[in-house]
Amino acid sequence: MSFTATKFPPSPLPLTSRSNDKPLSFSFHHSKPNHSSSFLGSTRRLTPLATPHARRTPSPSPPSAVLLQQASNLLVTKEEGLELYEDMILGRFFEDKCAEMYYRGKMFGFVHLYNGQEAVSTGFIRLLKKEDSVVSTYRDHVHALSKGVPAREVMSELFGKATGCCRGQGGSMHMFSKEHNLLGGFAFIGEGIPVATGAAFTSKYRREVLNESDCDHVTLAFFGDGTCNNGQFFECLNMAALWKLPIVFVVENNLWAIGMSHLRATSDPQIWKKGPAFGMPGVHVDGMDVLKVREVAKEAIQRARRGEGPTLVECETYRFRGHSLADPDELRDPVEKEHYSGRDPITALKKYLFENSLANEQELKSIEKKIDEILEDAVEFADKSPLPHRSQLLENVFADPKGFGIGPDGRYRCEDPKFTEGTAHV
Amino acid sequence: MNAKSLRPFLRPMATLFQAATAFSASNKFHFPSLSACNGQMCVLRSDARINQFLNMGPHKSLTQRLLTNAVATKEDTSASSKTGHELLLFEALREGLEEEMERDPRVCVIGEDVGHYGGSYKVTKGLAPKFGDLRVLDTPIAENAFTGMGIGAAMTGLRPIVEGMNMGFLLLAFNQISNNCGMLHYTSGGQFKIPIVVRGPGGVGRQLGAEHSQRLESYFQSIPGIQMVACSTPYNAKGLMKAAIRSENPVILFEHVLLYNLKEKIPDEEYVLSLEEAEMVRPGEHVTILTYSRMRYHVMQAAKTLVNKGYDPEVIDIRSLKPFDLYTIGNSVKKTHRVLIVEECMRTGGIGASLTAAITENFNDYLDAPIMCLSSQDVPTPYAGTLEEWTVVQPAQIVTAVEKLCQ
User: Fold this and answer.
1) Which end of chain B lies in a sparser environment, N or C, as judged by fewer CB atoms within 10 Å?
2) Interface contact B325-A238, CB threshold 8 A
3) Would you say B86 and B67 are in contact if contact means Cβ atoms under 8 Å apart?
């Protein structure tokens, strides 16, 4: 099946009631004519949901929708399910550990945690190959972990140690890994989207100019709802659709940009609509449900691999913690928070695995224990790692250190021994 | 070994060697054997180190000594031979670009109207039909996004050249240039390099109005992690273009709108200049005049007058705006003890201001007089021709300044 830029009904989406009780289907018609609940994040009162959701087998969906044909009723195999579970647990436990370490004074500055949004990272990134690229924002720890960067290296980086993935020079908001093709880690929002577009451009260039016909690398760009009001977002949507770049724009719409509700900042809060405006499919998916995200991601990534161009995927998700560890998080309605913690993606997956007999309690517990051990080891490794030496100060400013220029004595400055000591004045 | 016997082998750095003989014996040049160059394209560095580049075929032993100064000094026709070809500056840029694109298929051009239109100053004319639309990419008008796209492409293995139709438009890309170009190599702990070239025409033209007459060198100079060079002649334009493309660092290449039609004869053989070195334009004794880009020509024009008045100015085109070539500059200061900086930048926070600081820090003991800096007025460039003329430094002001300095 493929996405098309279908026309959408003019009535607003009942984003609250849609995905929980509806079966999994690729219906772009998310509207129910009369909905009693209001969009979360608005100032209107939230009406409680009728029944707790239960996953059912797909039932016939509205005629204009496209149904996913499945061989079995299940969305994942046992291995896949356990892999997803492990990845989400790793993300969740890691972020909790970060908070613990931050309050113990092991890391400083701005730390933005991903609790609650694991389904998006796991759902998308676990489908990628190692050569595919991921570009993220400052909320990038879990993207790094899902992509394959070892927890040790991420933790060291957060502690500012020389063994971190960026030698301690990047920090929480600048996670990079050449090996795993994680292209950052950007502090300014929207800044990474053009970089992701460039990585997708390279993929296309390699296929068409360098004639590497098997190069089908896909780039995923992750960013939030606040970014979707930024010019760089729109400029890149245009270019990606224009040149059919192999990129997927993943919007992690957690409804809040620090203290700014998405509704208060955006004239049309339905971000997926912005895709068709540029000539690419716009999809909305329940970002608290890893299996749904995964199904959407599969198709979006395959589309990109086939050379059909970009897709805009809006994942409705939520962060359980504040914007950063410095955020008191007083502005958000506790009822809203409670609602979303009821939709915890990890609990939801657990339930799915149990209900479909894909795993039992012990297996999941042993995964959690394994992750605990990994994290213990990561913290210990980070603790024991050395702080960066002064000689590191000037080392990576230029790829070619001749860029520091020629000193008064005629030699290149980088040849000055003070440079390797880090004490030279540039 | 003296400079004369080396003359046939010297590249147009030769003018430096003319000055070299005037230097004190403290400058010792070690001349490596040039036979090591057989079959290879060599660039003789100004300090006589040889950089060997790709194999370009038999090295032509008789290279003419080319003049890099275009205005004031006499044309030396004695060394001109049949080799070399004459072209305009924008053609030289294009030649450099084309050669690099042929040499390395990862080199690509990204910018507005670079493809089908051939570039607003014709620097990329003919390249799109030759290399294809993807290698010479016409972008929509989205400087920030396509500069960022160039950076992402550079991180993932390509070597893009981003053209700003006018340097001023790159202000819209400042976010990407400052945050990503300059920083990503560092914040990634050295994992990703960004071999990008950002180039475009800037400077004060002929009544182009304030926004099209900007000098961004001063705005970009503080960004750590980038290099800036300014070309001023067809010879150094081609050489710097090639060097910038081959460099692993992000380089901003400043061209000037009014210099695109300068004509000069350049060598047929391939050559690459050094990004960090300054160029000796006219050796002298009395005063060091440091300049770059278009002001070089105003300086050389003033130099004519000064020579008639009996002064002997030494003119250096600093070329490398960041980092400064403190060796060439320092040697000159040590000789003349007087410095005049002539630039087109604004006075506040300009290249001249940084250069003054650098010279004072390093060579204060050698100065007989305070450094004089002539810059443009801190004024948005007016449209009216007369006002525009008074915004920029004119040769008469340079003459007056030198006279004052040499009192």
Assistant:
1) C
2) no
3) no
